[in-house]
Amino acid sequence: MMTAAQLAAVESPDEQQAFDALIAAEQRIEPRDWMPDAYRRTLIRQISQHAHSEIIGMQPEGNWITRAPSLKRKAILMAKVQDEAGHGLYLYSAAQTLGITRDEMTQQLIDGKAKYSSIFNYPTPTWADMGAIGWLVDGAAICNQVPLCRASYGPYGRAMVRICKEESFHQRQGFEILLTLMQGTEAQRDMAQDAVNRWYWPSLMMFGPPDDESPNSAQSMAWKIKRFSNDELRQRFVGMLVPQAEILGITLPDPELHWDEDHWHTSEIDWTEFHEVLSGRGPMNGTRLQNRRAAHEEGAWVREAAVAYAAKQAKKAEAAA
Ligand code: FAQ
């Protein structure tokens, strides 16, 4: 059986050749360009999942805005959560250039049909979780997303540039929260270590399944959407964490972790947990979706008002013309 890309090549050989040449020459594919259907579908899948992750990802930290330990911490956390909303919006806009509407994507999310990152299905019971999310979750996001700035699809790559700049601030603020706690009382140090113990393994799962179980990687790398494999990026992340953990005085919760000639040797990741979370059975999946649905329903009047306002403005403009 022919793959979707081969089928497209038979249907439109000239366009396929032009597309292949652009990819080979490290040029960007833009919305106006012809592209194989499978390339378009892959991008819609990845970009919309990424956008949903940013939007759902506001919840674990949003949970702490009213309880941040000082006015300064509250202002920083509010700005960070607001940045994540912005990332979601750029990414929805990038996906829209591929022919899907924002309404369709939102509907897929609230119907529970769309994936979003597994990491946002874990609870945030203590203030130290804000440090662990910034350090580990934003840290993993940077490792994964810096190469996406060179993704072959123009609107995605360009959106990633600003997103990555903001993510690096986020990572530093998380590191600084943990550093402050580690320089505090014994109870504060324990709280920081406990948060890292809980977030470390899920943050490694953010990079996706191992390479030999990643059905999308080979094609996405051939299309230069992904530049490195899931395992390569996971390795890079562990390498980044080790010296930073030392500075913090925090122990990464993996007794087997060590450098083994040319790679980081880690204990086996619990992929059963990963698949459970992806199937909707993580600790917070239900709550996250329920909150997103409620926000959508409660925001209906805003959307209606915006449509009514736009219609009124259009009528006015028509009357003036
Ligand atoms: N969670 O064949 P692969 C952030 C799915 S943003 C859930 O390897 P692919 C910022 C995958 O979709 C975090 N699902 O797939 C922030 C596929 O499902 P499908 C989000 C996962 O696409 C910080 C199936 O498994 N970042 O953190 C996960 O080649 C703090 C097979 O996997 C992005 O989305 C997972 N962890 O590689 C916000 C980055 N892993 O669709 C707030 C862009 C895999 O076939 C607070 N995305 N799956 O049914 C990517 O780089 C890629 O899509 C991967 C997965 C690497 C995530």
UniProtKB/TrEMBL annotation:
<dbReference type="GO" id="GO:0097266">
    <property type="term" value="F:phenylacetyl-CoA 1,2-epoxidase activity"/>
</dbReference>
<dbReference type="Pfam" id="PF05138">
    <property type="entry name" value="PaaA_PaaC"/>
</dbReference>
<dbReference type="InterPro" id="IPR012347">
    <property type="entry name" value="Ferritin-like"/>
</dbReference>
<dbReference type="GO" id="GO:0005829">
    <property type="term" value="C:cytosol"/>
</dbReference>
<keyword id="KW-0560">Oxidoreductase</keyword>
<dbReference type="InterPro" id="IPR052703">
    <property type="entry name" value="Aromatic_CoA_ox/epox"/>
</dbReference>
<protein>
    <submittedName>
        <fullName>1,2-phenylacetyl-CoA epoxidase subunit A</fullName>
        <ecNumber>1.14.13.149</ecNumber>
    </submittedName>
</protein>
<dbReference type="InterPro" id="IPR011881">
    <property type="entry name" value="PaaA"/>
</dbReference>
<dbReference type="InterPro" id="IPR007814">
    <property type="entry name" value="PaaA_PaaC"/>
</dbReference>
<dbReference type="GO" id="GO:0010124">
    <property type="term" value="P:phenylacetate catabolic process"/>
</dbReference>
<dbReference type="InterPro" id="IPR009078">
    <property type="entry name" value="Ferritin-like_SF"/>
</dbReference>
